[in-house]
Amino acid sequence: MTDYVGGGREMRPGTVSLVGAGPGDPELLTVKARRLLEEADAVLYDSLVSEAIRELPPASVERIDVGKRGDGERTTQAAINGLMVRRAAAGDDLVRLKSGDPCVFGRGGEEAEHLAAAGIPVEVVPGITSAIAGPELIGVPATHRDHASSLTVVTGHDDPTKTEGALDWDALAGSVTAGGTLVILMGVGRLPDNMGALRAGGVDPETPVAVVERASRPDEFAVTGTVETI
């Protein structure tokens, strides 16, 4: 984008939109997300974004695979940050497309801080998080007036080196024992450890558990059991 000032031409930076892609079904995208995908100069997408959504931008929009996963990232966060700043500083309007919601364990907050510090206009477009979509799509409401009056969402692979803000599994177990719903995102890889931590915290081994993978996609998988058997 350009502005004309005093007869000269002044380049202004483009905007970076941190957009939530939802769980995977294109029909679960927000109207604004769909519009931005069609209007952007380039879309930078993560590997967790579904193929169906990656194919939505028209041919005129550049698609950049930044292929980032928490368990073995192919593009470093620093490289992604640098690319966004360079492209936006050159005047490009970018969509940074993230699975689910950009700020629910998606590093959207970190990226927004970096862009703002570099003087790049940034906006956040919320998406449907799998913390809600996953349970609901298999018929399990996240809350229910008669059964669950609280909802806690945590990451399933907390950084073990964190000195502040680390998960308190005893407290989480207490919330489950009190009748609350606990959603563990990205938790399949550490499922036995996480269930063990809940049992150690006093959760009844017969407490129902559901595991959902690839929610809303054609290959969605779900299984149910208990804290003891899952």
Automatic annotation (TrEMBL):
Gene3D superfamilies: Cobalt-precorrin-4 Transmethylase, Domain 1, Methyltransferase, Cobalt-precorrin-4 Transmethylase, Domain 2. Transmembrane segments: none annotated. The keyword Transferase applies. Its EC number is 2.1.1.107. Keywords: Methyltransferase, Porphyrin biosynthesis, S-adenosyl-L-methionine, Transferase. One of its GO terms (biological process) is methylation. It comes from the Archaea. SUPFAM superfamilies: Tetrapyrrole methylase (SSF53790). InterPro entries: 4pyrrol_Mease, 4pyrrol_Methylase_sf, 4pyrrole_Mease_sub1, 4pyrrole_Mease_sub2, CobA/CysG_C, Siro_Cobalamin_biosynth, Uropor_MeTrfase_CS. Homodimer. This is uroporphyrinogen-III C-methyltransferase. It comes from Haloplanus ruber.
